[in-house]
Amino acid sequence: MSINQSKQEEQERVNVVADKIDKKIERVDISIAQAHQETSRIERNYGENTKVNTTEIDDQMETNASVQQQKQLVELAVENENILNNNKLKLENLQGSPYFGRIDIVEDGEEDTLYIGTSTLQDDDGEFLIYDWRAPISGIYYNGVLGDVHYQTPNGPTTVDLKKKRQFQIVNNNIRTMFDTNETVGDEILQSVLSEYSDEYLRNIVSTIQREQNTIIRDTHSDVLLVQGVAGSGKTSAILQRVAYLLYHSRSTMNADNIVLFSPNKLFSNYISEVLPSLGERNMRQVTLNEFLSLRLNGIHVETLFERYEKDERNLPETTVKIRLLKESGEFLDQLSELEESHPEHILHFEDIIFDGKSFFTKEEISEIYDGINHAYHIPDRFLKTKNILIKRLQKRIHEDRNQDWVQAEIDNLSDEDFQQIITDHNIEESADQRDIIAEEFLRERYAPIYNALVNNYFFNPYKEYSFLLNEMDQDLVPTNVWQTMVESIDDHIESHNLNLSDSVAVLYLRDLITDGGVNHAIQHIFIDEVQDYTMAQLKYISQAFPNAKMTLLGDRAQDVLTSSYRKKDLVTEVNELFSKKKITTITLNQSYRSTAEITKFATKLLPNGDEVKAFSRQGEDPVIKVFSNDDYYQGLKDTARELNKKYDTVAILTRNQAQAEQIYTHFSDESIITLIDADYRSIPKGILVLPIYLAKGLEFDAVIGHDVSAKNYPDERSTDVLYTICTRAMHSLTLCVDKEVSPLLSHEPADLISES
Ligand SMILES: Nc1ncnc2c1ncn2[C@@H]1O[C@H](COP(=O)(O)OP(=O)(O)OP(=O)(O)O)[C@@H](O)[C@H]1O
């Protein structure tokens, strides 16, 4: 059969399936409308029931039961509506482009043809019209070459004979292209997908997942999956596809709330927010490292990586580097805990618990309790025993204080309603000592802040404990006076509610270790993008905080913008050392998809091992280096940006730091087309943007302008990572503007790339 005949037949099938999808959507719309009416009816009912008289106890109990029942009905109705809406979303995702792949297989002598799309679609009689891309059999589409192929079923591995693999590009229900192939996904379709212009959001890559990406997406056995992938190799894309895959495979035991993604910044969170919904899934939780740490160190401003980078750019003394490298290592955290355990006679740094302006428990009392507990116990056990004793003492106080005059007077002054409320809230039965019980309940409410302070360990000061251990630490890294100054500066910072990044992780680690807290058992998967920005201490702490989570770590050593000025060791080695007891799989991605071949080749020349990076064969314009030798650098930059903006919707001017971005912005201030992006931006507008490179991490733009790649601004190889990351943000066009003298990092570039004005 000729390909045209096949295309005709395939088109007929697309029409049939498209028609069925439309009809299903019509039906689901009717069900949604009915479900919505039902929810509203139950909610109205619920509203009326909650208005019932609540002053008589009997009535109130009855009302409570009925309200509970109504509440459950509302929840059920809402859930039903959610399921229907979700079904509709999946059908809508299939609309216009119902599938992208087909495989013909022979299994146990039987021939079968399967179509693969973003979700499963069944006929009314149960026949599969489309298989979900995550179904075990769909793995063949991404992995297999024709002939015998294996795939995993719930009953173990199975072998089938793969006869045909066909790819489609279907737009508005019309087959635009169709290929039979032996590869994962042929270049033609990938070419066409990659030459499209960027938009505000990253898109899913479900129809063109490549073999190595597929390995990342479908890995279910590793505790730590470490992906070292060059810029634009699809690391972020693979994360999101992997989340969708894991959600599908563990539907009964896991949902999106059991997954956390550590993302590099807020812009990034918005940028990736459309991928999972386009695959019919809810987004996982997202947090930046700074949000994660700040939330746990309530009331303290934790230095951001960006703030630190900006500071480092100004001044980074060698002693600071030495101390920082120590604090950022996994061993440093081990040292802290060993030191703590090696001082059994040491009394932890406790704090008074203040209530109503007075000390309710003094630190001396708490210290005495702690000291009185057998020193042979581990510190967390002693801490817990101390806490339990304090809670018991609080209970005793409640019991004793109930007869105090002030308590009795307060009870006498209670309104009838409040009095009744205590009785119903605590189910207090009528008896001779009812008033005593009420007095205790009253006190329990009054003393609740004390109880909370105990439960939340506010009587322990982890900052002082940390400084104590630093003072005790035997170190010969830096002279004693330098070390001492460092410890004092932490104390000063704490006074003003600030903490730098490396200390914050150490304090948290120590606090959680001593208090045996801070652990979240519910999270099953942690994803960390841009892992090259993380220290081993941070990774160790994160893995301690989420003990049940498998970790997927994705990074690129060459894009080490934020720490390259001082970090030396290789990320893969470090991670392997840190998690040596876990099952680690390391995957390397060398193929870059984002940029044109010209841009990728240009960028990789900056790297010492650049020849390992494989450019995708998408052709485009050569990058340009524009040198402005006169004093009109900013005018030249402006003209360049405007010129590019005629052709490309988004033109990003990327700088080394925020100050440079602001400076450019002031030169543009007469224009409404330019947007200065800062760390609080949540979405990327179109037009000309100016932002420091660290905010552009993980993002991509149609056209990129590197700001002032001069010898002054990029003097030596310590700037390579920054420049490389800037260049690799560009999809279609890259221009480097230079004020006077070109950076030595570009000295190998041929003269014809350089234009002088
Ligand atoms: N298999 C694929 N099919 C289609 N497009 C792909 C594929 N893999 C990657 N891409 C595209 O390449 C670009 C880069 O992908 P992504 O942002 O996931 O890479 P990355 O490795 O996280 O990049 P970086 O580290 O430079 O931020 C995106 O536009 C993405 O859609």
From TrEMBL:
Q: Which UniProt keywords apply?
A: ATP-binding, Helicase, Hydrolase, Isomerase, Nucleotide-binding
Any keyword Transferase? no
Q: Write out the residues that bind ATP.
A: G229, V230, A231, G232, S233, G234, K235, T236
| SUPFAM superfamilies named among the record's database cross-references | P-loop containing nucleoside triphosphate hydrolases
* Catalytic activity reported: ATP + H2O = ADP + phosphate + H(+); Couples ATP hydrolysis with the unwinding of duplex DNA by translocating in the 3'-5' direction
Recorded hits in Pfam families, A to Z, give: UvrD-helicase (PF00580), UvrD_C (PF13361), UvrD_C_2 (PF13538)
Q: EC number(s) on record?
A: 5.6.2.4
Task: Identify the residues that the record assigns to the UvrD-like helicase ATP-binding domain, covering every copy.
Answer: 208-596
Domain of life of the source:
Bacteria
Q: What is this protein called?
A: DNA 3'-5' helicase
Q: Which organism is it from?
A: Companilactobacillus huachuanensis
The primary gene name is helD
